[in-house]
Amino acid sequence: MSQQDPPQNGSPARAKDVPDPPAPFEPFELLSSERIYDSRWCGLRRDQLRLPSGREQEYHVFELSDAVAVLPVLADGRVVLIGQYRYPHGKTHWEIPAGRMNGGETPGAAAARELMEEAGLRAARLLELPGFYPTNGISAHYAHAFVAEGCSIEREPAPEDSEQLFRRMFTRSEVAALLDAGCFADAFTALCVAYWLRRTG
């Protein structure tokens, strides 16, 4: 699976007082690569590397298509969150709409689709938040993040068969309280909410 580089055009300009990023290291030398597993959901490969010390080491890389995460804000300023059940750990917690991008889909189109599917909302405008690598120690999987402003309710959520979720509205102060209390166990949600709260003062 190909992975996209972080977006450059449209990304927030760096403030003058923000330190420069670290100088890049030379990439490890790739000696061989073996595909271990492939499905429509994910892939796993085993790379054999030569490290700067000269020692050889295998590295397992988990492959996922890129994703979007979108924080919905209604025209009246309330925030929409999704109560969603997650099978891997068996818990239900508050999240923002998020999901994988389909082949050939732009990040903005994927964000609008997830917003409608999981929350039944249509946005007046989508604004980029800084994207991120959720698990960059094992994967190049990248998440494009947005805030959806001026959302209107179009319908009830239409989740897939494997999804159990419901929609609820919160005030800005309630969302801030949830973040401060550590109630966002989903990292996509916590990071996007934190960015949005900092930007909106």
CATH C-level class of one domain is Alpha Beta
Radius of gyration from the CA trace? Answer: 19 Å
The number of E-state strands comes to: 11
Helical content (DSSP H or I, runs of 4+): 10-25%
Q: Uncertain spans, ≥5 residues at pLDDT below 50?
A: 1-11
**Helical segment count:** 3
The second-level CATH architecture of one domain is Alpha-Beta Complex
How would the global form be characterised?
A: globular
Provide the descriptors you would attach to this structure in a database record.
201 residues; alpha+beta; Nucleoside Triphosphate Pyrophosphohydrolase; 5-stranded mixed β-sheet; 3 helices; 11 strands; globular
Structure description:
There is one protein chain. With 201 residues, the protein is an alpha+beta fold. It has a domain of 134 residues: Nucleoside Triphosphate Pyrophosphohydrolase (Alpha-Beta Complex). Helix content is 18%, strand content 38%. The protein has three helices and eleven strands. The strands form three sheets. Strands 4, 7, 8, 9 and 10 form a five-stranded mixed sheet that branches. Strands 1-2-3 form a three-stranded antiparallel sheet, with no helix packed on it. A three-stranded antiparallel sheet has the order 6-5-11. Strand 2 and strand 3 form a beta hairpin. Helix 2 crosses helix 3. The N terminus is likely disordered.
Nutshell version of this structure?
This protein is of the alpha+beta class. It contains three helices and eleven strands, in the order βββββββαββββαα.
